[in-house]
Amino acid sequence: MRRTSPVLPALCSGKRRTKNVNARIRSEEAAHSQILRTLHMLTDRYGPRLAGSPNYEAAAKWAAATLTEWGLKNAHLEPWDSPRRLAQ
Question: What is the pLDDT of residues 39-50, one digit of tens each?
Answer without folding.
Answer: 999 999 998 888
